[in-house]
Description:
Elements: E1 3-6, E2 9-12, E3 17-23, E4 32-38, E5 45-50, E6 56-58, E7 66-71, E8 76-81, E9 90-97, E10 106-107, E11 111-116
Parallel strand pairs: 2-11
Antiparallel strand pairs: 1-3, 3-8, 4-5, 4-9, 5-6, 7-8, 9-10, 9-11
Amino acid sequence: VQLQASGGGFVQTGDSLRLSCAASLRSISSYDMGWFRQAPGKERESVAALRWGGGTTYVDSVKGRFTASRDSAKNTVYLQMNSLKPEDTAVYYCAARVPSRVGYDYWGQGTLVTVSS
Length: 117
């Protein structure tokens, strides 16, 4: 199983980026999918969690600015990030989890997002 994250880059405060995560899973609609990030010197945190049955939750710091979605036909999940702030600077990872499990089973390699002030 492979998760390939892409779309990171260097942007200015207020800009937008869309991250993509292409999965080699049989069908991402059968999995919980997650977006995580890890900023320099900080612990990894969950940014968005897409439940297999529908519904998405976000960390408070990105609510109203980030939108996670999935395209089951393309087996790809997205993270649309608007109104980016310097504190959004991090390596962003996508992950997949069998719904009955607690931890995420599969992780992508990460894509770096740098937001300049």
